[in-house]
Amino acid sequence: MFDGTFETFEKVKRADTVSVFPIHKGKIVICRQRQPHKKHFYYSLIGGRIDSGEKPLPAAKRELLEET
What is the rounded distance in angstroms from the CA atom of residue 63 to the CA atom of residue 52? Predict the structure, then answer.
């Protein structure tokens, strides 16, 4: 967890997600993130969960805007 504690989560089904590979000037763009209470930066793709009733393409566009 963000506060340094540990928690166990169990789930049978995973939520639908999208990952975006934006290309700018011929290069794939990835994000550098910092999580609370962590020293390191993490590199990741842009993306997230698809909201209930949302289609994948609008979800990808929304996540791109939210994450960048």
Answer: 14
What is the tally of structural domains in the chain?
1
Q: Which residue carries 């975006």 as its tokens?
A: 20
Q: Domain of 27?
A: 17-67
In whole angstroms, what is the distance from residue 45 CA to residue 67 CA? 10
13-17 average pLDDT score:
89
Predicted model pTM: 0.68
Q: Which pLDDT tens digit goes with each residue over 33-65?
A: 777 887 767 788 899 999 999 999 999 999 999
In a domain, 8, yes or no: no
The helix/strand/coil state of 45 is coil
Query: Would 61 be classed as within a structural domain?
Result: yes
How far apart (Å, rounded) are the C-alpha atoms in residues 12 and 26? 39
| 31 and 45 Cβ atoms separated by less than 8 Å | yes
